[in-house]
Amino acid sequence: MTAHRLPDDACPFCGHVCNAASTLDGDTAPPEEGDASVCLECGSLVIYGPGLRLRRPTRRQTRELCAYPEVAAVLKAVGDFKRTPRV
Ligand SMILES: [Zn+2]
Most buried by CB count within 10 Å: which residue of 16, 50, 60, 84? Predict the structure, then answer.
């Protein structure tokens, strides 16, 4: 997995500072405008806008992206992780 350092930006849902991105599929390219990501703090689906600024997806984008099993699996995995009690 390759991680890319990005300028600090706030999640449009929870305000968490997001400054890195990585993929689960081995793709080593950095994110581009229009790519989707998931905030690891709140588990929300976000989109890289101009300048790689994070924005909320449209309802249509959310519907279309969640139709991909890989996206649904990542959202579920992050949600499950967030609900796991910490020791
Ligand atoms: Zn968030």
Answer: 16
Structural contact between residues 10 and 54, judged by C-beta atoms closer than 8 angstroms: yes
Per-residue pLDDT tens digits of the chain, which is 87 residues long? 678 899 999 999 999 999 998 887 777 888 999 999 999 899 999 999 999 999 999 999 999 999 999 889 989 998 898 888 877
CA of 2 to the centre of ligand 1 (A): 21
Closest Cα to residue 56, out of 10, 86, 13, 25? 13
pTM given for the model: 0.84
* Cα 36 to ligand 1 centroid, rounded to whole Å: 13
Residue pair 21/11 in contact by the 8 Å Cβ criterion: no
- Cα 47 to averaged position of ligand 1 atoms, centre (Å): 12
Residue span of the structural domain in which 48 resides: 3-83
